[in-house]
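dumping this here so i dont lose it again. seq + smiles for pyridoxal-5'-phosphate
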Amino acid sequence: MERIDRISSFIVMDILREAKAIGDVIHMEIGEPDLDPPPSVIEALEKAIKDRKYFYTPSLGIWELREKIAQHYYIKYRVNISPHRVVVTTGTSGAFLVAYSIIMSAGEKIVLPDPSYPCYKNFAHLLDITPIFLPVDESTSYTINVDMLKEYKDYKAIHISSPSNPAGSVYSADTLVSLIRYCDDRGIYFISDEIYHGLAYEQEEHTALEFSDKAIVISGFSKWFCMPGFRIGWMILPEELLQKAEKVIQNVFISAPTLSQYAALGAFDYTYLNRVREIFRKRRDFLYEELRQIFDIPVKPEGAFYIWANIERYSEDAFTFCERLLREAKVAVTPGTDFGSYKTKKFIRFSYTKDKKALEEGLRRLKDYLMK
Ligand SMILES: Cc1ncc(COP(=O)(O)O)c(C=O)c1O
């Protein structure tokens, strides 16, 4: 099969395009915050424009931002990271491409949960890396554990996200530690996508860096910091991978967007960010209580901004369900099939990245549609 044919489209982006063409749609599909970034981001951006920061930066990012990100790990997790190990990237998406390309060669394997964030497998395909899908469901709250990993052989890396997309599950410290030890002992790379950190509602999240310096931690400004369009993220790498990452970034990106790097200097306003978390927590509480009266929701989401709902009592095919819901009720949600193939036809993902009024209207339309 041609490489390009192995890459599937990111269905949620297709739905977004269709929803925008239809108009007057309640958007519960896309995972981008509707809230503004901290005001200090805009101030930093305006200053950068005034200072004419229009040039490329060093490929690993501006030093001030690398320092701020390192400080963030101390403030939030009490972990000491040298700013040298921080690499500023073009979104976490850019970081995935760089990370995969520096640790794996064509034909090597990476373990991914199924369901999980759709683009992981496509980054693998783009680099002729073979994804191995590890099925997860409600029995383990959609998380991987060491017993499950033991069944797989000859893989170079595993990649998880916590809080996770699509189920909003948060890995416990115990599960993280055991997974990381298992990987470290066998020379397997543990890639931890922590982009939803800051949006955990029941317990503090743990960064993989608390447990190992070998973990590859990827995070960014698109979710908690409300800066998705700035296209900026970061990676914390083990020392020995830094030069390799630099080489790839020099060639593929040159550097992350300069204005966004300067704007991100203003992102670490924790008072503002804590308010963001509270807003999403309230929305989660509201939408979860409403949706569980309509659908079976096997796992209460503990983080991110998604609800993973079973639609079996209404339909056997999530894609058709979502298409009809969009066309007939003007509510956009994402079919589970975007996230993998294990039981995903029975699920849809709601996102609560709109205000309560919009969520209420979405629910009204959804209920009317289901009652027809
Ligand atoms: C788990 C996960 N990782 C990464 C991303 C992409 O983030 P970025 O905007 O930093 O490229 C998303 C976006 O939805 C996501 O859900």
